[in-house]
C-alpha cells in the first residue's frame, strides 16, 4: 500500500508539471519572413515570443513544411565582420518578450521548396520544451533595410 501511495505522489507531481506548461503563457506575434533575391536558398524569419507565465520557457527547435531545415541564429559583429552563430536553444524569461530582428536573433530557413515571394504565406512550427508545438503563419515581406533610403 505504501508503494501505491508513492506512485500516486509521482503521478500527481507529473500532473502539476503538465499544468504549469499552460499554452496560454506563450504568445507569438509579428511573424514574418524576409524575401531574398533569386538564387539565394535561405530566408530569415522574425517574430516576437512573449512569455506571460511565471516559468522560463525554452524554444528547442523550429521547422517548416516549406523548408528543408530551420536553425536558430544570432548575427554577431566581430572585427567589423558579421557572422551568424547557431543557437542550440533559446531561453525566454518569465514576463518578458523575446524579439527576433534583422541584425540580431533570427530563424534561418534553409532550402525552400520554392522561391518565397512577397505576399506568400508559409508556416512555422515552434517546438518548446514542456509547452509543446506551436504553429504560426508567416507572411513573406521585403526587408526594409536602412540602406534602402540611401539609394
Ligand atoms: Cu542566419
Question: What report would you give on this structure?
Answer:
The protein is mainly beta. It has one domain (24-143): PCu(A)C copper chaperone (Immunoglobulin-like, Sandwich), CATH 2.60.40. 13% of the residues lie in helices and 52% in strands. Strands 1, 2, 3, 4, 5, 6, 7, 8, 9 and 10 form a 10-stranded mixed β-sheet that branches. A hairpin with a 2-residue loop joins strand 4 and strand 5. It is globular, with a radius of gyration of 19 Å. Residues 15-20 have low confidence and may be disordered. Bound molecules: copper (II) ion.
Labels describing this entry:
13% helix, binds copper (II) ion, single chain, Immunoglobulin-like, mainly beta, 151 residues, 10-stranded mixed sheet, 1 helix
Whole-number tally of structural domains: 1
Give me the count of strands: 10
The overall pLDDT, averaged over residues, is: 87
Structural class by sheet pairing and helices: mainly beta
- What hetero molecules are bound to the protein chains? copper (II) ion
So how many helices? 1
Just name the CATH architecture. Sandwich
Q: What composes the largest sheet?
A: 10 strands, mixed
Using the alpha-carbon principal axes, give the shape.
Answer: globular
Order of helices and strands: HEEEEEEEEEE
Would you state the CATH class? Mainly Beta
- Report the radius of gyration as a whole number of Å: 19 Å
Strand content: over 45%
Helix content: 10-25%
Can you say what the CATH homologous superfamily is? PCu(A)C copper chaperone
First-last Cα distance: 79 Å
CATH fold-type name = Immunoglobulin-like
Amino acid at each position: 500500500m505504501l508503494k501505491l501511495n508513492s506512485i500516486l505522489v509521482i503521478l500527481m507531481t507529473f500532473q502539476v508539471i503538465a499544468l504549469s506548461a499552460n499554452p496560454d503563457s506563450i504568445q507569438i506575434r509579428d511573424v514574418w519572413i524576409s524575401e531574398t533575391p533569386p538564387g539565394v536558398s535561405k530566408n530569415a524569419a522574425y517574430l516576437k515570443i512573449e512569455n506571460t507565465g511565471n516559468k522560463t520557457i525554452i524554444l528547442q527547435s523550429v521547422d517548416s513544411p516549406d523548408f528543408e531545415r530551420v536553425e536558430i541564429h544570432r548575427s554577431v559583429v566581430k572585427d567589423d565582420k558579421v557572422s551568424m552563430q547557431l543557437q542550440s536553444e533559446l531561453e525566454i524569461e518569465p514576463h518578458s518578450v523575446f524579439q527576433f530582428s534583422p541584425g540580431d536573433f533570427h530563424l534561418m530557413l534553409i532550402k525552400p521548396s520554392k522561391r518565397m515571394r512577397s505576399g506568400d504565406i508559409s508556416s512555422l512550427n515552434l517546438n518548446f520544451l514542456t509547452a509543446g508545438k506551436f504553429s504560426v503563419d508567416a507572411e513573406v515581406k521585403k526587408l526594409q533595410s536602412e540602406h534602402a533610403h540611401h539609394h
